Amino acid sequence: MQLRQTDALLVIDMQLDFLPNGALAVARGDLILPGINALAARFDHVILTQDWHPRNHISFASTHGLHPFTDTIQAPYGTQHLWPDHCIQGTPGAELHPDLSIPHAELILRKGCQRNVDSYSAFTENDRTTTTGLAAYLQARGLTRLFFTGVAYDFCVGFSALAAAALGFESLVVEDLTRAVDLPHTVDATNSAFAAAGVQRISSSQLLAP
Questions:
Q1: Diameter of the chain by CA atoms?
Q2: Rounded CA gap, 123 and 111, in Å?
Q3: What is the pLDDT of residues 127-144, one digit of tens each?
């Protein structure tokens, strides 16, 4: 697959709290770091995202006295999964992994900054109306085809890729350079949503081949 000047690589939430030994560790998430670095070197345009939560965030099970992973609440915008406290603003766990080496990344976008609404997608918060400004940034630079890597496949990567497709971007997920939380049915639901929305699932070998 030939890259174009209108392509951008999005590296989603490769933060210490989401990787092994982190507060909300995605299994084997660290193993995709070398591949992401290699792929990013092929792109002129790379954007990184960070979850960046205040303390007592709506997505934290501890905020509600409930259990992470298994419990949910009904937020004004719908069902909210509850997680361990993670990616708290200014804490070591919120930092990007030190082995992520993309010095030419042109934007680091922080999301989930408001206490009362979560933000899986890099484009809109979970209320589906509050934007992050990313779409306007990409459109202003004429970037129309987006490739997604990072964590987690069935949450922030998936929501970002689906939002991109809904906004009219060509959206491709580099499947071997993602990892999933893999709660019951979340991966199957993500795959079905990708198929319905026209989000392509590809391998990094299609982009890294000489």
A1: 53
A2: 9
A3: 989 999 999 999 999 999
Residue pair 26/180 in contact (Cβ under 8 Å)? The answer is yes
CA distance 209 to 137: 29
Q: Which of 13, 30, 51, 118 is flagged as catalytic?
A: 13
Residue 87 falls in the annotated catalytic set:
no
d(CA 178, CA 202) in angstroms, rounded, equals 11
Coil vs helix vs strand at 199? coil
- Catalytic-labelled residue, pool 85, 111, 118, 154: 111
In degrees and rounded to multiples of 5, residue 139 shows phi and psi of -65, -40
Measured in residues, the chain has a length of 210
> pTM for the complete prediction?
0.95
Q: How far, rounded to the nearest angstrom, does the alpha carbon of residue 74 sit from its chain's CA centroid? A: 22
Q: Which helix (H) or strand (E) holds 75?
A: strand 72-75
Catalytic residue list contains 156: yes
DSSP assignment of 82-138? -B-S-SBTTSGGGSBPTT---TT--EEEEE--STT----SSSB-TTSSSB-SHHHHH
